[in-house]
Structures are given as C-alpha cells and as structure tokens.
C-alpha cells in the first residue's frame, strides 16, 4: 500500500452495531442501523451483489507498520521471544490488535471504518490488524488470533502488495519487498519474500501481478477475516472490479 485516499469509497457498505448516538450534520453517525457492519460482512458472498456498500477507511487503518510501531510498542519485530512465542528473525515482523468502529455516514449511504489503539466511544471490535511495511513482509501465525478473543482480521488497503494465506500464516508482502532496497521489484522478489516466511508452503494469494493459487486485483483491495461457527473465513473487496472474492483454504 502506497497512497490511499481515506475518503475514496471502496464500495463496501458497512453498518455498525454501535451505541445509539445522535448523528452530526457533516460527519459520521454512530446510530444503530438495521443490520450491523459485522453482520453484513458475514453475509457477504462472492461476486458483485453486495451485502456491504460504501465505506471509507480512516485513522490507523491507513497507517504503515512503522507508523503503528511508533505509537504502540506491541507493533514490534517480536524477535526476542518475550511474549512466549518462538523467537523470529528481525526482518519478519509481527502485527497486532486494534479496535475498529463502523459508523454509518449521514443519510446511511455508506460507513466509516475507524481504527484506534484503545476501545473508543460506542461499540468497537477487536481486530487483528496486518499493516504494510516498505521492503518487508508483515506476517502472523493464524493461531495467534484465530484462537484469541479477536473475532475479526483486517489488512491495510493493498495497492501493489500481495496478501498470502497458508494453513498456518497470513502475510502482507510489500509491493517492493526485496532483500535489497534497490529497484526494480517484481513478482519474483515478492515470491522470494513470501517463501522466506512460509518455506514455500501451499498458499492462496491476492496480488496485482499473479493469479497463481488465488486472485488478482487491478488497483486496490482490502482483506477481511472473520470467525464463523465452522471456522475462519477470509474475504477481499476488489475496488476496480467492484466485487468480492472468498478464499478457499490452501491445498494440503
């Protein structure tokens, strides 16, 4: 993700199970809608027919790993093993938990997703958040959050980055991921960066340049994950295509 306008609607359409508060004339309202954002996200199927309609991403949801790390030390390289997890190489980065509110816009035509480091006013969900970092791969083991009290997962917007889902991990591979900060960068560099983390494990991908084992997107995309009664499901909205895709689990 490089430049992304926080007020550029992604065409999602998220409502909110927030507290019933008075709307403002010019900003988002947190008044409870007929269905919540989270309910609509669960109901969203693959294709162009949307349960979710227009949304903007604001606050921490647009920040890079480095910006988040400067605000909260939990966004750290995580290579010292102090949190009980196995020590990891410093260049393999660990994301963290933020709180997300989904607030209907005035008139109900769309919604703002607002991320913060602490629970805000009204209702907010704990979301395991995977941002991007220049030249790097930000990743997490799925059991860190799938077996935690987080019910949702989310990435920053992808605009050249690659999202990777394996049986055990999620990865946000920067568009310029490379072991050298010098261009050019390409699909091969991103694949090398991916395999440096996954060991070449079978995967599903969302990428601008390769549909191998997954989906392509043209301009920008956002990935969401959610807990369901039968396990975790991962979905992505593709902006230019104006549709949703749902990831199958990788092959054995």
Strand order of the largest sheet: 1-4-3-5-7-12-13-14
CA-based shape:
globular
Q: What is the residue-mean pLDDT, rounded to a whole number?
A: 74
* Integer count of domains: 1
Contiguous helical run count:
4
Q: Please report which band the strand proportion falls in: under 5%, 5-15%, 15-25%, 25-35%, 35-45% or over 45%.
A: 25-35%
Description:
The chain is α/β, with parallel strands linked by helices. The protein is built from four helices and 14 strands. The strands form two sheets. Strands 1-4-3-5-7-12-13-14 form an eight-stranded mixed beta sheet, covered by helices on one side. The relative contact order is 0.16.
List the keywords.
14 strands, 6-stranded mixed sheet, disordered N terminus, 252 residues, 8-stranded mixed sheet, 12% helix, alpha/beta
Strands, helices and their partners?
Elements: H1 37-43, E1 54-59, H2 65-71, E2 92-93, E3 96-104, E4 110-116, E5 125-130, E6 137-141, H3 142-146, E7 152-155, E8 162-165, E9 169-173, H4 187-198, E10 204-207, E11 214-216, E12 221-228, E13 231-238, E14 243-246
What's the gist of this structure?
This protein has 252 residues and is α/β, with parallel strands linked by helices. It has helices at residues 37-43, 65-71, 142-146, 187-198, and strands at 54-59, 92-93, 96-104, 110-116, 125-130, 137-141, 152-155, 162-165, 169-173, 204-207, 214-216, 221-228, 231-238, 243-246. The chain has one domain (37-246).
């Amino acid at each position: 993700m490089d430049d992304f306008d926080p007020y550029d609607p992604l065409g999602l359409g998220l409502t909110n199970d927030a507290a019933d508060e008075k709307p403002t004339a010019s900003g988002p309202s947190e008044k409870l809608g007929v269905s919540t954002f989270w309910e609509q996200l669960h109901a969203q199927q693959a294709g162009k027919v949307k349960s979710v309609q227009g949304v903007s991403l604001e606050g921490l949801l647009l920040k890079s790993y480095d910006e988040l790390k400067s605000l909260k030390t939990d966004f750290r390289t995580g290579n010292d093993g102090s949190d009980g997890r196995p020590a990891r190489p410093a260049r393999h980065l660990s994301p963290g938990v933020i709180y997300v509110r989904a607030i209907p816009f005035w008139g109900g035509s769309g919604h703002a997703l607002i991320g913060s480091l602490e629970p805000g006013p009204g209702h907010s969900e704990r979301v395991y958040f995977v941002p991007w970092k220049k030249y790097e791969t930000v990743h997490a083991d799925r059991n860190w959050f799938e077996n935690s009290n987080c019910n949702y997962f989310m990435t920053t917007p992808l605009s050249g980055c690659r999202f990777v889902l394996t049986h055990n991990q999620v990865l946000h591979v920067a568009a310029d991921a490379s072991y050298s900060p010098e261009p050019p960068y390409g699909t091969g560099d991103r694949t090398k960066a991916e395999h440096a983390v996954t060991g070449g494990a079978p995967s599903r991908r969302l990428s601008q340049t390769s549909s191998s084992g997954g989906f392509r997107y043209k301009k920008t995309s956002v990935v969401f994950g959610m807990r369901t009664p039968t396990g975790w499901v991962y979905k992505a909205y593709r902006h230019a295509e104006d549709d949703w895709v749902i990831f199958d689990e990788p092959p054995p």
